[in-house]
Amino acid sequence: MKLVLLSGGSGKRLWPLSNDARSKQFLKVLENDEDHMVSMVQRVWGQIQSNNLGDSSYIATSKSQIEMMHSQIGTDVPLIIEPERRDTFAAIALAATFLYSFKGVNLDEVVAILPVDPYVENHFFESVKQLEDVLHSSGADLALIGVRPTYPSSKYGYIIPEVEDSSLSVYQKVSRFREKPTEQQAEDLIKEQALWNCGVFAFKLGYVIQLLEQKGLSIQYEELAKQYRSLPQISFDYEVVEKAANIVVLPYEGYWKDLGTWNTLTEEMKNKQIGWGTISEDCVNTHLINELDIPVSILGLSNVVVAVSPDGILVTDKSASPRIKDFINYDQGPMYEERQWGWHRILDDQSYEDGRCVLTKRVCIKSGKNLSYQLHSNREEVWTIVKGEGEFVQNGNFMQVNAGNVLHIPMKTLHSVRAVSELEIIVVQTGVEAATNQVVEIYTTWDEVTEHCIKL
């Protein structure tokens, strides 16, 4: 069995920590058994490895998330790259063609699809492994996992099984689906033995490949990637699952939660405060997550989340927090990005009446890592080294740099730096607002830079 984890969403419901460059699954707000802060994707990937599924697993993600994924779980994890976000039907179609035409997976092989960010116990993955046997023994087109509800939730979709089959085997035939009912409707569904739809299902690879052929879509990975923008932007549930005639569900009894909103995420945080600030003692069920170097004080407020990042500040009642996605429409790019080599945070971004633009950011390069050998077509930069030491090269000229050094990099000047110890740099980038800036990368590794660029 092959396992494909879907990692494509932007996670706007966890703004301001999540943005287009740092989706919710990358937020390091959970704690592992060693009390280290980890993200959802780090937690799930660790569970996959501990359940001996790592060698048969892939992560489907967008180009914008490659560096973040490599930074958090390593460069050895196989990725299936989506050219852009187009919902789960397109992502699963591309993953199927990747397995079929690029990896040579047999059409009879079972493929299980799993979100990259469920909050589950380890034994959940035993149910994932069971999907292969369920699919073979049932002869169904699709085999799903449904979670036994612990309360009538209006936040989840429901799978309603044919109850008369419940005593025949470990799985049940699916009767119908219901998406996000009211709490009263959810109570009635639970009386029908309905299950929460946790977005986990399996199929034989040939099932999706045949479906793509019927739709006139390419079954070759590289060709489908070229056509990706023309694929329907719709979920796999709506396009395939709810139209399939022969579906079974495997009930799961255990802990499962979707950490997609601030109120559900904070329920699983061990600490009520991350970052600098104060929560007064009369606050009840209040959480503070602060990524900035300024203090935040919360006094006398209960059932509240305060989240602070370079992208903005959120103050919300926990019950209202899911509504944030309806309010976030700010015309700005990500103010904080995590990269394979480190991270950078935008401190200031200004445009002036004379047409000049000035961008100031703080850049951290991890020890042993380097920036690519690159040039800016229409921006010049001034770097002030504020921490650490490194090796700097500009147009082939090499020099050692340390905290306190100031470097001027004119437009169209090739440059790179490698951190001997962790480097922090204040970068001031200037140019003309109307002039589009292009970043031209020549080499990415320091070995290439030293071989081809450094003049001894």
UniProtKB/TrEMBL annotation:
Keywords: Nucleotidyltransferase, Transferase. One of its GO terms (molecular function) is mannose-1-phosphate guanylyltransferase (GTP) activity. The keyword Transcription regulation does not apply. Coiled coil: none annotated. Residues 4-270 form the Nucleotidyl transferase domain. The keyword Transferase applies. Residues 339-436 form the Mannose-6-phosphate isomerase type II C-terminal domain. One of its GO terms (biological process) is polysaccharide metabolic process. This is Mannose-1-phosphate guanylyltransferase. It comes from Paenibacillus nasutitermitis.
